[in-house]
Structures are given as C-alpha cells and as structure tokens.
C-alpha cells in the first residue's frame, strides 16, 4: 500500500524590526518566493492524490462487481424445443434433460423455437443468447475483397463469361432474371488441370461484387470427431445467410464429394456424412436467397454423381490449359509490371510453350527475373525467358509433378 506524501516545511519569516527598510523588503520578497514554491509543491501533491483516488475508486468498483458476480448462482445453457402460451420446453445442454418451465409474457415475445437461452437452477429462463456459430466458419470469411481482377486472367474468356452469368449477374442484376421469369443458377463447378486459373476466377468474381466472400478448402471440412464436419457445413451456410449477398467458394471439393463406396471405416463414414450435409444445404427446403456457390476440383472423375446434378451445380465449366493465343495473353499479363526488353517476342514464347498452364507461365516469368538479377541486370531479355522456360519445364519433367521455380 502506497504511503501518503510528506508535506513540505512551512516557510517562516524572521524580520529584524531594527533593520533598514530595504533589507525588510528583500526579506519579504524571499519569503513570498518560498511560499510560492511550497504552494506549487502542494498543488502537485494534490493533483497526484486526486488521480490516485480515482484509481482506487475504479478498483473498488471492479471489486464490488466481482463480488456481486460471485454471489450470483451460475446459469446453464439450454435450447428452446417448443413454446406454449405461458410455458416452454427447454433442453439443457450437457445432460439433454427436457423441462417444461413457465415463461413471463415479456420473455415469451422474444423466444423462438431453437433459441439458445440461459436458465437457473429452477430452470427459469433468464436471457436469450445470440445464435451459435462455429468460430472456424467465422475465420473463413474474407472481409476484404481479393485483389485479382478479370484483367489478370488470360485465355479463359468463354469460361469467365459463364462464371459471371452464373455468379455475378444474379447478385448485381437480379431484376433481369425476374423479368425473364427464370431462377438464377445456384452454383458453378470449375474443373480442369492444376494451375489453369480456377481459384483466380473465383477471386475475380469476389473482387467485382460487394458480396461476402467465404473461402474454404474441402479438406477443412474433414474433421476428426463424428458430426463436426456436418456442423461446420451448417454454420458456413448460416453465416452466408446472415451476410447475404454471399459467395461460398469450396476449393478441392473432391476431398469431401468423392464417389461413395461400401467402406465401413469410421473415417470414410464421417466424410460421407459431411457430404450428405453439404448436399442437404445445397438443396434446402427454403430459398437460399442471394447465396452463390463456386467449387473447384482437379479430379472431376472422382466426384459423386449426386453433387453434379442440376439444382446443386447448374453449370459444370471445364477450365482447360490455355491455347496459343491464351498463352500469349498470359505472358503479357505476367510481364506487364516487369522491365522487359524490346526483343521479347510473346508470340514465339506462346508457340514454344506447348502444354503448360498459366501457373507454369507465371513461374517462367518469375524465373526469368531471377536470371536478370543473377547477372546484375534490371532488364529481362528474350534469352532470360527462354532459359527460364527450359529450366521450369526440365524440372517439371524430372520431378513428374508441379513446376519448381528457384530450384
């Protein structure tokens, strides 16, 4: 405990009555200065004391609140199962005990079946809680739009048009669908080889719309314990419903939507349960509203037929490797912010790079920049791009897998 500050000594005035007037006046002046200094010290101590008093008052209020909290009995969480005129059936979490309890008229106006509430030892409802949402579903929400635009995607004009018609148009121009008299498509599945731009297309759509963009990987829905994956799927669609218009992007959907087998292992059974929950949410007995689904996969042949039918994914869009014109466009996109020499021939590069994806082309451009830095140059030449293409494709053939830049 802090001690009170000591008070300064009080100044004293000793004046010899026999001294000359000038000396008496000088003594008075010195006494006034001393009194002023003591006054300033006392004011500083008073200000410090006032601050300390406010701090102690706040601490006292906090202790009193904590003391009152400790005096109150703990509350339990329950779910409202049914509602009658002046009573309700609640199920307590943990022991699943169902109890019929009286409800005040004011509380009854706020209650709905399925609400989470707090109850006391007498099972009387004390308050209504907010809807429960899995924290992992909240974490998957993308608050800021991705920076990818349609101009960053080359060689996929037809695919982009179909994606925009399916996902963007129903959100930005819903009235046109009402005038024509058709329901907008509910979802689109992008399939094709790795590195062809499927994820970039989804990001570009999110960038162009004001919709909430919720991105997830199919593997994230595969959980360890029974029921966790299904619950996460429900929470994702509830989150999208709360934040509509919304776009749900499921990457590598084959992780949970593979063809069903007769396997009896618990892991396979849990994956199938998660897929069934996803199918149920995609169908839904209620209108889904302004929620659109984009999914992507490299293994279209593995997908279960149930998820491919119209009404779940109305458009199945193949995203192939780019043709020569597309490769030339992609080279220009990835080098537009690079310091490229005038001798670079994009048409020759496109003709040379036969079976490569957009991701491979990006790796080639980056590797060409590394060659220029290695030679202490700031300009990328045609020779750099050719050498980078040779390196990336050679690494690809040796590894029989994805391209390896900077090896």
Compact description:
With 407 residues, the protein is α/β, with parallel strands linked by helices. The protein has twelve helices and eleven strands. The protein has four domains: 71 residues; 53 residues, Nucleic acid-binding proteins (OB fold (Dihydrolipoamide Acetyltransferase, E2P), Beta Barrel); 182 residues, 3-Layer(aba) Sandwich (Rossmann fold), CATH 3.40.50.300; 76 residues, Helicase, Ruva Protein, domain 3 (Orthogonal Bundle).
Write out key terms for the chains shown.
4 domains; flat; 5-stranded antiparallel sheet; 11 strands; OB fold (Dihydrolipoamide Acetyltransferase, E2P); disordered C terminus
Percent helix, as a range, is: 40-55%
Tally of separate helices: 12
CATH topology of the largest domain: Rossmann fold
Strand line-up of the largest beta sheet = 6-8-9-10-7-11
User: What is the top-level CATH class of the largest domain?
Assistant: Alpha Beta
On the 0 to 100 scale, the average pLDDT is 80
CATH superfamily of the largest domain: P-loop containing nucleotide triphosphate hydrolases
Number of strands: 11
Shape: flat
CATH architecture of the largest domain: 3-Layer(aba) Sandwich
H-E string: HEEEHEEHEHHEHEHEHEEHHHH
Which regions are unreliable across 5 or more consecutive residues at pLDDT < 50? 402-407
Could you say how many structural domains there are in total? 4
Report how far the terminal alpha carbons are from each other: 65 Å
Instruction: Indicate the radius of gyration in whole angstroms.
Output: 36 Å
Task: Describe the sheet with the most strands.
Answer: 6 strands, mixed
């Amino acid at each position: 405990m802090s001690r009170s500050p000591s008070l300064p000594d009080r100044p004293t005035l000793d004046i010899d009555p026999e001294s000359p007037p000038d000396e008496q006046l000088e003594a008075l002046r010195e006494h006034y200065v001393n009194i002023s200094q003591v006054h300033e010290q006392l004011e500083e101590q008073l200000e410090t004391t006032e601050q300390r008093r406010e701090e102690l008052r706040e601490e006292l209020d906090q202790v009193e609140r904590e003391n009152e909290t400790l005096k109150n009995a703990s509350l339990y969480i329950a779910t409202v199962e049914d509602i009658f005129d002046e009573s309700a059936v609640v199920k307590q979490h943990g022991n699943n005990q169902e109890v019929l309890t009286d409800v005040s008229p004011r509380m009854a106006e706020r209650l709905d079946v399925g609400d989470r509430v707090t109850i006391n030892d007498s099972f009387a409802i004390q308050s209504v809680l907010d809807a429960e949402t899995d924290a992992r579903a909240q974490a998957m929400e993308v608050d800021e739009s991705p920076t990818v635009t349609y101009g960053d995607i080359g060689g996929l004009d037809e695919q982009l048009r179909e994606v925009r018609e399916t996902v963007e148009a129903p959100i930005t121009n819903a009235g046109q669908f009402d005038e024509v008299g058709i329901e907008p498509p509910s979802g689109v599945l992008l399939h094709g080889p790795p590195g062809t731009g499927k994820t970039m297309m989804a990001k570009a759509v999110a960038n162009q719309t004001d919709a909430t963009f919720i991105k997830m990987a199919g593997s994230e829905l595969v959980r360890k314990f029974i029921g966790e994956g299904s619950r996460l799927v429900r929470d994702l669609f509830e989150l999208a419903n709360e934040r509509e218009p919304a776009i749900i992007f499921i990457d590598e959907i084959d992780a949970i939507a593979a063809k069903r087998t007769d396997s009896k292992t618990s892991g396979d059974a849990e994956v199938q349960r998660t897929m069934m929950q996803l199918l149920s949410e995609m169908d839904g007995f209620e209108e889904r509203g302004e929620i659109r689904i984009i999914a992507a996969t490299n293994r279209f042949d593995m997908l279960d037929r149930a998820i491919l039918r119209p009404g779940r994914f109305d458009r199945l869009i193949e995203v192939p490797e780019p043709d020569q014109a597309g490769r030339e466009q992609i080279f220009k996109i990835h080098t537009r912010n690079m310091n490229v020499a005038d001798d670079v021939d994009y048409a020759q590069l496109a003709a040379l790079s036969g079976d490569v994806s957009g991701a491979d082309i990006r790796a080639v451009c980056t590797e060409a920049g590394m060659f220029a830095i290695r030679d202490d140059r700031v300009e990328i030449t045609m020779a750099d791009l050719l050498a980078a293409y040779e390196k990336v494709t050679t690494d690809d053939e040796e590894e029989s897998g994805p391209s390896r830049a900077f090896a």
